[in-house]
Amino acid sequence: MTYSDSVFQLLKWFPNMPIADYEEDMDLPYVIYGEALTTYIKKLAVTNDANQLIRVFDFLEEMANCEDEEVQNLLQVGVLEVLWDDRQLYFIAHKYMHQKTADIFKRIGAYFTEPN
């Protein structure tokens, strides 16, 4: 994955993810990831869809292991910081994330406090 094809890759992994509200922003990965993907993760958490949550965090781990630093930054800023800011999602993230994603998630603690 590269930053330039990150939205394409996301939609390839999750073709049924609702993006109707963001169709005009398809060339803005931070909007698609920070809004559409995190909203999708929230929905999966509320419905307790463990299989899809596992798939989402598998995808996030792919991003974490990507050599493209822009992809890793997109993961950290566009997704993980949003998850960090929501108490329920913070704990869901810890439950499902893999090692490399967890390492990036821990770095956020240097500048964000744990949600109440």
Features:
mainly alpha; 116 residues; single chain
Structure, explained:
Helix 2 crosses helix 4 and helix 3 crosses helix 6. The N and C termini lie far apart (34 Å). The radius of gyration is 13 Å and the shape is globular. The model has no long low-confidence stretch (mean pLDDT 94). The chain contains 6 helices and no strands. It is an all-alpha fold.
Topology at a glance:
Blueprint lengths: L5 H8 L15 H19 L2 H15 L4 H16 L2 H10 L2 H10 L8
Helix pairs in contact: 2-4, 3-6
Helix content: 55-70%
Beta-sheet strand percentage? Answer: under 5%
Structural class: mainly alpha
- The CA-CA distance between the termini, in Å, is 34 Å
- Order of helical and strand elements: HHHHHH
Count helical runs.
6
Briefly characterize the structure.
With 116 residues, the chain is an all-alpha fold. Helices cover 67% and strands 0% of the residues.
